[in-house]
Records
---
Amino acid sequence: MATASPSSVIPRRPALTNVDQDPGAAWRHVDWVLIVAVAAIAAIGALMIYSSTRGRRGPGTADPYFLQRQGLYIVIGLGVMAFVAAIDYRRLRELAPFIYATTLFMLFAVLTPLGSSTRGAQAWFTLPSGFQLQPSELTKLGVILMLASSCGLATSSGQLVQMGPRRIAKALALAAAPLLLIMLQPDLGTALVYGAVTVAILSVSGTKGRYLLVLAVAVVAVSAGVLNSGRLQQYQKDRLTTFLDPTKGTRDAAFNLNQSKIAIGSGGLVGKGIFEGTQTKLRYVPEQHTDFIFSVVGEETGLFGSALLLALFGIVMWRTWRAAVLANDSVGSLICVGVLAMLCFQMFENVGMTMGIMPITGITLPFVSYGGSSTLACFGAIGLVLNVHMRRYS
Amino acid sequence: MATAGTPRLRLTIVGVVVISLFAALLTRLWFLQVLDGSSFVQAAKRNEVRILCEPAPRGRIRDRNGAVIVDNEVTTAVTVSKKTVADQPDTLPRLSALLGARDHPVADLEKRLSDPRYSNLKPVPIAVGVPPEKVIFMKENSNTFPGVEAIPLASRRYPLGRLASHVVGTVGPITQRELDLRRSAPPPVNGQVDPVAECRDYKDNDEIGKTGVEASFDAELRGKPGVVALEVDRSNKVLAERRLAEPVQGNDVWLTIDAKLQATAEESLKLGMTRARQLKFTNADPRFLRAPGGAAVVVDVTDGGVLAMASAPDFQPADFVGGISKLAFGAYNDNPDKPLTNRAIQGLYPPASTFKLPTAVAGLVKGVIPSPDARYNDTGVYKIPPPCSGKCDFQNAGRIAHGSVNLREAITVSSDTYFYDVGARFWIGRSVYGQSMIQDTARQLGLGQRTGIRLAGEVDGRVSDPEVRKRLNEKQPKAFPDPKWFIGDNIITAIGQGETVVTPLQMAMEYATFANGGTLYQARIAGQVSTPDDPTGAAAVRLGPVTRSTMPLPPEVRDPIAQGFRGAVASGSGTASGAFAGYTGMAVAGKTGTAQQPAPQQDTAIFNSYGPAEAPRYAISVVLEEAGFGGTTAAPVARRIWEQLSGQPPGDLRATASAD
């Protein structure tokens, strides 16, 4: 059929004046599937946090401290998500240089005596009433926005910019500045997330294949250089290399990994039941409410629960990828790719480390691990995706 | 600006990458949870993790001003690995030669090594307190001493030596019985026990407080053991380890004891015993006094805090560190003078004339003594008015006739016949007064019951009355053949003889209760508990005074008795006046007592006192076993303590003749 009847063509931009009836109005296109999936993951996370911390004051006790705090973070996170989604990402793009500058400033400030140090990393601001803010979590969003703006085109054609060496160099410089500041803390895990975001955005933007190949070689060389530079603490090296051979490395690192694997493996098909995990309750698994929370999921809910959680993550990834495909312009598309890279890398690295197929680094499982900064950053990232998705017609 | 097409293809590649990452995770999950799941279930059940509990140092015991009485000392222990010795058996002889073959013969080392108390996984401590030069030698020649290491080990140290040995008490290995009593056995989680809760519970081979404050404050003093989880393979080789909890030192217990006053009390008690042994009992009995032991207790009358508690003979608590040898324990335990007994709370003595305090209070309250000024003619003998059968005559100590006395004078000179008369009239009028008025008053003053002091092993004592007599007869008909109570029993009860027996601490609390106007406090040995990092006790938890009961002591009752007590010390005819001749410290009021004991034991000497007489702060009870008259041998001991309390250097201990 060469022509379609006018009634069967959905116009991209309907010329209606009545806002209430505007089918392209942003609020009509909110991605509820994504919101429900994210909320479900956060709810499972809160339950698992409660399970791993409720008995911390002794056997038979029920301590809701961590549950209450995480609940508060989730509620604030939903607010942050709505706020980020409400401001048109094209307006955010105009603000990107300011947001990026703020990002660098915060990462710089945390290295000064304003920041405080925990477990060997100068990565936190201590706020009143015992809260701590980890700027490197929140600044992920600023970097995604800046890189997407720099590598994308804000025309609704969805076309990409031709990425010549100068543009590539500019993007790399924009990515390198926060990455170096984070390496100074030092927080290797978070730095790797920034690396993954950068690689993903550059790959999807109009960078030619041969440049990407050069970049890949460079990344490998830099990684090897970092491992042997002496800037890493011994425990960081141990954590990074233990997964290759658990009998090597320090006894502490090997212990964590072995016990985490025993926890997940002993969960079997259906798990030992919520609140019934022994490996995790008996404190054999370290940092079980933060970095190693997946070992609690694996032990208590088994393959069914773990696969369900991964399936929910799958829905989130799918909707994010879909938003990247449907985006009105390539800036929006690259924003979604950045978020996708961030969430996917963190999930794969975190879940992989608890099962011994990835090195142990301090990376949180998005929406599940306990922690305010991480939870807010993840909800903010989903806000960006919703933002791009619901403005795909406008 | 040149464009480079749409990102559709590249996004598809990204999608494939994401899907493959998910596939990797799910595959790994499948392997872990389904294919290898059963082996991991076994691993979790079998728990290839071995838990090592590291003992935490106990808290310190301090005096009321913070001076450390019991401390911890870190000594160097040499440890040996069981495995290495099995491989290279000539290590032990070499070690024995280095440490000194006399103190550490090879057989001893082998025995230590095979002691089942020590885990096979950790090095076994084989010698404690090894001098540093030998440790350095071992480290320099580590090839000659394979598997030999030196580790720091905390043990009890007593910077003030024997001071307050009965109060602080001893530590030692836990017995099965103690373990059964104290173990709380944390509930298992899904069939497994929380290793931290398990380590921190009482368990085999724990060192615990056995006596004194070490025992009664064990929960506070006991540290929280550190917990280390070791992952081992089948040959028990340690593959991995993780610290689950750091050891936490126990809390410091601050005694109410003043170390300086305690030292004076102990010294005075020993001097008093030495002096008594130079004296003859009476002219009729030519034996020297034995004075095998005694006690001196100082309490704060305003809150029941014990400022000093001396018991003689005493012992060296350091002897018990690291487990006392059978021989050394036998030497203490078989000693007939019982140096391990804390006589202040475990020694039972008839209160003798010091019991005239409750008799006088009851007499004035009930009107049996119509007026403190009423006079009684003390002829030296009291005759029960007829009809009387059996023993009808009761004599004063030494058969002295004191002549006409009122209540004040009867107390000052310790007239027995005056109080025999009060006792007899209470019994004759028992239908009006009740049959145990004197005894009930004595109980209100705290006699015949535990003072509630938090020290293990305190005994009750007994204030006898018709009811008590009946029960004693039912339980032990041989020792107490007569179930009935006669007037004669009431007469000797009035002066503190008969079946009534009390502890020195009870008597100190009795006189403190009278001195403070009728408030019976629970006796306290500790004032506060602090964390180990709080040397000033600024954030300590106070163990405040506890009032057990109060009794009315109106001035018309209290004043005449108090005047009698003051006279006993300060007036020329007082039974303790000789002992206090030339004394210039704070004004003291008190009562002597001389308790008759069944032959061949000599009399027990007692002196109970309080001061300053007009506004009392302290009460002291001194008891010397088999030491004759209280005024002669016990009062001089109390005088030295009063001198210390008055801020004067305690003088020489003199003994001046007294008749009570």
---
Amino acid sequence: MSTLTASPTRGSLGRTTKAEWIKLSSIRSTWWTALAMVVVGAGFTTIICGVYANDIAAGSGDSQGEFITQGLIFSQISAVVIGALVVTSEYGTGLIRSTLAATPLRARVLAAKAIVLSGFLFVVGTATAFIGYFGGNAFFRHDGVGISLGDEHILRSMFGAGLYMAGLGLLAAAVGLLVRHTAAAISIVLALVFIIGQVVQLIPGTFGEWVMKLMPGNAGPGIVVPVSFGPDMLSPWTGFAVFVGEIALLGLAGFALFQKRDA
Amino acid sequence: MTITHTPGVGIRARRLTKRFGDKVAVDGIDFTVEPGRVTGFLGPNGAGKSTTMRMILGLDAPTAGSVRVNGHRYGSSPAPLREIGALLEAHAVHPGRSARDHLRWLAASNGIPTTRVGEVLELVGLESVAGQRAGRFSLGMGQRLGIAAALIGDPPIVMFDEPVNGLDPEGVRWVRSLARRLADEGKTVFVSSHLMSEMALMADHLIVIGRGSILADSSIQAFMAEHASAYVRVKAPQSTDVEALLVGRGLNVTRTDGELRVQGLDAAALGELIGGNGLLLHELTLVRSSLEDAFMELTADSVEYHARSEVAA
């Protein structure tokens, strides 16, 4: 058997990150889910813009910015799936034991996963927003109401889409650390974003209003839309800061359990 | 066999304990796994073998006690796969990832050159299916991939948890010779199994565990000498005269159910001795109690689940 010639060097986050990237990119489902994010997100944006372009041109009073990132609502599902799987697929298969045997420093494993996951989702999310923009704006232009990337808030919402998708993936990964089960993690986060975030509107009074505003699926996506969902919502960056805070809290809880539990 | 102990090399457990709730899985065990030989870790299912191995790798935290790998706690090394390689029972591979990609990320995580991936694939005989998803692998191929993963860092210590499970006879022989070769290279080889017969063929040294406690820790020869006995069963009509004759020759004779069990002389010599003294013989049989029997006897009290017939017997 050959002897390894390279001398052992210090362990580093770089190596672990490279290993995590090989893991994420060598699974076919990652690419299918990312493709679904792009096709569904950009596709729906284009269709919605196509449907409303005529009305806007006719002076309906709606703004193009309300529609230009609309399809990304559906892209959230892909981000949640990829985020949860980065953690839960390791528990489902027993791979987590190989991972921790190779990199016993658990904090480094999580840091590497977070870097790879958020970087990947930022790129795919931003690409989805841009493709949707070009698709949707083609209809706006056709009807003489085209917009430009230089218009107010448009670029912020393009890159904001990437940031939000990255955050959503991290949120799902954090929940994955807590429950260690794929279906459970995905269901919880999707329910939180799509159902609970809406249901809490039923809570009466100012309290209900605040709960609604602060739900991750309501606070986070403010930076994705050039024109706000409504006056009840937090401003884009305030909302995103709240969203990041929520991710950090769940992430810390997940990390604490991950440190403590046997693999 | 002389035991040459080099301090700080191999695996060393001291008062190692693991409790799950009020169930004691590993009960304050002490053992040392030395380099240059194959150490078998033998015990029935549920005896605590896998839990011990997980603690060695730092995957499970000991409730009490400690275990050292090459003199330090696992995980303090920057490249642990270069220190110890392990095949774990549940072969920890994502079914959607190819064998090559599985080894690639392992190599990357410990700064091991990618060329090593091809080397270990060849070593375990998986080159031709390296691009296939591991989920399609048979149990035996999965074991081979797990062994490739264990060897990726060419570590001085290898640990195989039940490596022959699911392997065909050719694969079993291959694992045996691999373990032998690694030990001959001076590596520390620690192999678990619940099969005594397998350990008898593979191991130089044996650590027997049952219900979380060490039942035996000795060289395989010493274990055999102590636990596996051979005797000659003698049935003779004038059994009292035969007994007197044999005892008179200084042989170890025990009488059970009208038959004599004789140790110290082989069957042919016994036959000549008894016949030569004009005594009749009805039966003369060499009986060897196997290592399997010895193991069953040793662990009888520590098996968690008996089949009903076994309990009755």
---
Amino acid sequence: MTRSKKTLAVAIAAAVAAFAVGAAAMPRPPALSAESRGDSALVEEVRAVLAETPGVRDRVSVAVIDGDTVREAHFGATDATEYEIGSVTKTVTGSLLADAIDRGEVEAQTPLGDLLELGSSPAASVTLEELATHSSGLPRLAMPLDRVLPTIVANYRAADPYGSTVDQLVASSSEQELGEKEYLYSNLGFALLGQALATAAGTDYQELAEERVFAPLGMDDSFVPTSTDDLAADAPTGFTAAGRPSEPWTLGADAPAGSVRSTLADMTAYVRAQLDETAPGVAATEPIADAGGSSTIGYAWHTTDSVTWHNGATGGFTSLVAFDRDAGRAVVVLNNTGASVDELGFALMEDD
Amino acid sequence: MEYITGFLALAFTAVFAAGSLTRGKAFAAKSRLELVFGAADAAVVLFGTRLFMPWGSVPTWLWLVPVAIFAVGVAGAVLRWRDLPAVRPDKPRRRTLAWAVVHAVVLVAVVIVVAG
């Protein structure tokens, strides 16, 4: 073999080897679990809607409540499978505000500065109701300069970008300027609201949610982690929208904005209590402010047309809880990937 | 936003392949060092694309497109290897090597951060 032919052979071999390595590393995102259980018609309906909805899937649990009838569909899960419910947690915080007002601990117009050490900062003048309706003028997140890079890295590593202490949360909030007092979705606002309510009650947010919402509704498998120390060693984790394994999100002091872990059974009990108006702090569901477009907002709960709802997303989970008192229907969707379940949830709400 | 990684993978693998296969002024690698770093840049971007592309929303076979372009680049690099100097003779050798070290450190850092 001449030198040029030998070089050509080596080049071809190297290209084939490179392609083979690349092909072997071909992405294999998780797919909707083939193991299904529950109401067979609902299972097929959910499967059909998800097939038309882009995104990585793995475990999904769905409940459709019509009056006293509850239908469930599970893929790779049971009604006791634990999920991160993300920002649906804000509805728990909203309920806690309505409940605290009922108890006389706070008023809707109580300034945040009466409960947290915010000094004379702009955030001190914000009222609890403004926080609960996303109209405080606070930004979506508190982002001190020293957190910018770690947050970007955490996002790319599918890790929890939160994790400050209450003192750090309050300190960074006292440095925030306020924007217009109009609807602007704010995780920071709900983190502060939850911590303020815990202060007013003389406890921490974890205990407050447990005592005033989870225990009265029998939500025994629901809890508020604030660090990975609060999770079981085998606590479920999810996948990002790209199909990468995600780390758990526990959010630290931002827990009132999105760290609750729950099950379909518990969230079904939760939304049924909202539907029949027996939930603690159910006044939170009543719209009191504009939320942009045709939507209005109560304490965390958004209402669009006649459907009252909240969705949630963490690094590896998405969720939707919705109900329509006029129609007597409620829906819970829990999912362990970063792909949205809003389309599925609203389709189930409209279904005849 | 995540889809941009797919376009980056196509761009970087195409630049590497062009550098190894062409001899024009615009893209052709002028040294073995440039070939090596062209391959390393493309490989790191491919790594990131595999992690960050929303593969549940796009056909996974699309992954093979930048991989195939990379493989063509590898073949071109092997064919050109003997014809190229180790480093560009028209640039100060010390500065070239210093930049190579910086370039390598950046690539390693990106891999460490991305892979977690």
